[in-house]
Amino acid sequence: MKLHYCLSGHPTLPCNVLKFKSTTIMLDCGLDMTSTLNFLPLPLVQSPRLSKLPGWVLKDGSTFLDKELKECSGHVFVDSVPEFCLPETELLDLSTVDVILISNYHCMMALPYITEYTGFTGTVYATEPTVQIGRLLMEELVNSIERVPKAQSASMWKNKEVQRLLPVPLKDAVEVSMWRKCYTMPEVNAALSKIQLVGYSQKIELFGAVQVTPLSSGYALGSSNWIIQSHYEKVSYVSGSSLLTTHPQPMDQASLKNSDVLILTGLTQIPTANPDGMVGEFCSNLAMTVRNGGNVLVPCYPSGVIYDLLECLYQYIDSAGLSNVPFYFISPVANSSLEFSQIFAEWLCHNKQTKVYLPEPPFPHAELIQTNKLKHYPSIHGDFSNDFKQPCVVFTGHPSLRFGDVVHFMELWGKSSLNTVIFTEPDFSYLDALAPYQPLAMKCVYCPIDTRLNFIQVSKLLKEVQPLHVVCPEQYTQPPPTQSHRTDLMIDCQPPPMSYRRAEVLTLPYKRRYEKIEIMPELADSLVPLEIKPGISLATVSAVLHTKDNKHVLQLPPKPPQPPASKKRKRVNDDVTECKPLKPLLSGSIPVDQFVQTLEKHGFSDVKVEDTAKGHIVLLQEAETLIQIEEDSTHIICDNDEPLRVKLRDLVLKFLQKF
Amino acid sequence: MPEIKVTPLGAGQDVGRSCILVSIAGKNVMLDCGMHMGYNDDRRFPDFSYITQNGRLTDFLDCVIISHFHLDHCGALPYFSEMVGYDGPIYMTHPTKAICPILLEDYRKITVDKKGETNFFTSQMIKDCMKKVVAVHLHQTVQVDEELEIKAYYAGHVLGAAMFQIKVGCESVVYTGDYNMTPDRHLGAAWIDKCRPDLLITESTYATTIRDSKRCRERDFLKKVHETVERGGKVLIPVFALGRAQELCILLETFWERMNLKAPIYFSTGLTEKANHYYKLFITWTNQKIRKTFVQRNMFEFKHIKAFDRAFADNPGPMVVFATPGMLHAGQSLQIFRKWAGNEKNMVIMPGYCVQGTVGHKILSGQRKLEMEGRQILEVKMQVEYMSFSAHADAKGIMQLIRQAEPRNVLLVHGEAKKMEFLKQKIEQEFHVNCYMPANGETTTIFTNPSIPVDISLGLLKRETAIGLLPDVKKPKLMHGTLMMKDNSFRLVSPEQALKELGLAEHQLRFTCRVHIQDPRKEHETVLRVYNHLKGVLKDYSVQHLPDGSITVESILIQATAHSEDQGTKVLLVSWTYQDEELGSYLTSLLKKGLPQSTA
């Protein structure tokens, strides 16, 4: 029986648990960060605007929440250290999780919460780029939050009775009890130390029972889908895959074939936007702003799409006359991210791999750095403040606009209509992200670039790999809430997908009937196959079953069966099951004439045969023995004369096949 | 009986021209395709006519595996694939794929351009050959075809070096290529899991050597370089562009940094800068420490080591120069050597093995007067030092690898016969496995005894594991089933299922025995006595007294009737089926002994 537990409600930041053949496997460890949008931004430089916000007052005039909640730009925000929404921790005992499989660096952000706080003692599997870049993302996150110490952590508003009274969206915020503060670097290091590195198509044995294999998913450096299989069942976990040709190795689709169950998560969050078109718009908006003397702010993660954007700009800037405009990449991990991107040749697409053979760096941002067109800084403080020239283009995080260096640039550039902020990351609603900065004079352009599978690609993929069952988050089984008429924006397959939602448990519909077992060579040699029907041979096997590490082996039974000691005699049947073969089933029928001949050959001289309705009765008069023979049965009725009985038994058995 | 056959075409009781043919479960794999440094005639390449004399190699080989980029492991590849003709897959790791063609081109240039040979592979052939290469990741399981799979393990030795596991069904071979069991300045140590191959084919270059600690050799090396530089001498270190060169550069670079030395270090141009670049781009293949710190400080970006210019050789004052090639047989290293050899203040350090006939070999064997071309005699006054930095496993390392992998048989290649003999004995003694050391062209056959995988119906497996009230995992469990063989599938099912699938009916064989008991009491009283008796004796069995007056022991039925003639005798009818044979037979013998008198 296979069970599937859903611990995260966010379809692109999944956290599922699969119980499969006595192993408990967590699939991804996504951290829902959209909760941070309810918090006030953390400014790096004292912001007069943000520090003087009025406390929020209830309609009845009570002010007990005015320390926790502030009114800003017509919305109410929590004035506290930002918090993230954790995966469910109560649905099952997470200390029983044996392994965690990570599909890409965005889907491991909750790892420290799981590995450090639930009694988890297992192993985490991920590819090397996933771990290295995942570490960078965590470092950046921890750094941007710890840089701006906040004395208070608000909790009163989370009280159910209080939350009811709050304005939207706080009133509707879900799972607030699962919101937690960010982890620390020691926790990150402890979590990452539990990871074991794996390569694509590496077969990893779990307890001898299950084999897991990562496959290239084409979405990011080192991103993987996972095959979880035994000899007879195959579950494919497809999470964050892309069929577009960007920098990563292309998606391995062929290996997903013949799946019994395919779990499908991490589809594009913007199914209506074409990534290529968005990149074009990004470039033209950027060029226009800079030409008009304005600055461009690109809130982004320190790895991923930024590599592709830099590559586009590398090809674009000269023709667009932007060669003198400085590009700044500001992040505590900017340098590391740029360096790491160049050393993972084996995880890149074919074109980039070939460059390494020359040997040249696979990404052209190396040249942008060399020619001083792209500069990177750990933060706005230090060297950057000396080098800073306007107009310029700044890439910095965090895309939620709630923490990181981006907050400073929003405050700095928001008031001028010359400047533009271009949103490329699809994880946060840009309007919600901008809410605490309103009113803004700066232009806002929304060019979400999400290279993950769209619904057209999904239906093609499913036709191609033909899984028996599809399992997916409930969001994918209906059109997006804002576009309810777009029935094309959902998964369409036969049989219809099984859907799940946060805190739900599914029983996956597949039942295996066979298991692998090995017959030792000595036992195999002793078997006597008999051809029963043309092409079908049978051999009865009586053997000792050994099971170790979930592997089953059949061996020859021990040679001399221990003669049971007299004291043990009463336990005769126990000994039988342990040491002596069970009696086989019999099949066939007994031809009476031949049987009688055989009896006579063995010294029975007074054999008489009587016909009955269903067969015959063979009488041995002297021995007062009667043998009833029918089509499917034989009954030997005799006195308690064991040698005689055994003799007759063996003669009967000669005519029958054993199974 | 299934067997694995191994035939070395090169590297059999020899170093050089590594090329080993393996046949496993009907698949033929060629391991490495190297050239021999010691020969310039036909013997420099393996004799591929051994594989087939008429017909294409592609038809006889399922795949070719190259362990690393050294020419004695890949130097014959373009000849093999383009001139003899092979179009099947060639597997190697990414760094090997990147660096191998450069070394091949270098080799071609020296052979064709400098030595003027004509019938040799061309640049285009190298390119065409490389198109047949499939790059593999470490630990990736590559499915060559439906049955044959290969997997690479990290081998240390040089950048991208790998050991390969070749597996068909449950039979497997591991080929180590060249490996190093101790991490060095730039690479990590070889590692393999307990994969228990039927055969481990291992190199044995240092079969009898147990090397002192690397630290001592490094200290020694630095001391010698330092002393020479201090007294104003020049140090020449002949190297090959990739491999040891980077290790020694890192060593000197950190030493210069630490000691704040000013004497210049040069690296002869050409391959070198490019080589360092490969190390930078494939940094994930280097050791832990370099990988961890590369963002802050890339170990292959050298501050103190500059590109060498021919004119620098005549500069006054101390300097250290790394120059190619490593055996002083040609090129820049030889030129510099000639310039500096006359001064006793100078020093040449040979960090690796030199083939007979090379200048390197001559000076290492003590020759101090060398005849150069034009009958010129070169007197060597400079100091000559040998320091082994080659990254091969020593005897201890080889034993360690065997311990890690737990092979059933070991086969030695890539070493000298005498030394192999010694190691072979040691391996056989310590691990009690067979150890082989075939010469070139000699075939070793190893018999494997694989177990047979079959499908067992889950119902049968669960039934068997559920027998017994307290399942004791340690107790072996007896199972009874029917193995059905149809086409090539093997299924083990319960006898009932086998009968059902074949459309056969069960034939029931039943026995009924009459047991006579002397008991004058009424029938139902006799039955009660029998019941109490059995209940007392057969404590572990379900003994029941049914309302119709019969007794059951498990599924065995006992009924009592009065004897037709003798009222003092009762007849017990004990009835059981063939499947209960043991118990039925036991019961009749038990009852025959009669009932105990005391039983009421």
Automatic annotation (TrEMBL), chain A:
Keywords: Cytoplasm, Nucleus. InterPro entries: Beta_Casp, Integrator_9su, IntS9-like_C, Metallo-B-lactamas, RibonucZ/Hydroxyglut_hydro. Transmembrane segments: none annotated. SMART domains: Beta-Casp. Residues 306-434 form the Beta-Casp domain. One of its GO terms (cellular component) is cytosol. One of its GO terms (biological process) is negative regulation of transmembrane receptor protein serine/threonine kinase signaling pathway. The keyword Lipid biosynthesis does not apply. The keyword rRNA processing does not apply. Residues 550-574 are annotated as: Disordered. It is found in: Cytoplasm; Nucleus. PANTHER family: INTEGRATOR COMPLEX SUBUNIT 9. Belongs to the metallo-beta-lactamase superfamily. RNA-metabolizing metallo-beta-lactamase-like family. INTS9 subfamily. This is Integrator complex subunit 9. It comes from Strigops habroptila.
Automatic annotation (TrEMBL), chain B:
Keywords: Cytoplasm, Hydrolase, Metal-binding, Nucleus, Zinc. GO terms for biological process: RNA polymerase II transcription initiation surveillance; snRNA 3'-end processing; transcription elongation by RNA polymerase II. GO terms for cellular component: cytosol; INTAC complex; integrator complex; nucleoplasm. Its cofactor is Zn(2+). InterPro entries: Beta_Casp (IPR022712), INTS11-like_MBL-fold (IPR041897), IntS11_C (IPR048662), MBL (IPR050698), Metallo-B-lactamas (IPR001279), RibonucZ/Hydroxyglut_hydro (IPR036866), RMMBL (IPR011108). One of its GO terms (molecular function) is hydrolase activity. It comes from the Eukaryota. The keyword tRNA processing does not apply. Residues 16-233 form the Metallo-beta-lactamase domain. It holds the Pfam family IntS11_C. Residues 245-363 form the Beta-Casp domain. The keyword Transport does not apply. Coiled coil: none annotated. It is found in: Cytoplasm; Nucleus. Belongs to the metallo-beta-lactamase superfamily. RNA-metabolizing metallo-beta-lactamase-like family. INTS11 subfamily. This is Integrator complex subunit 11.
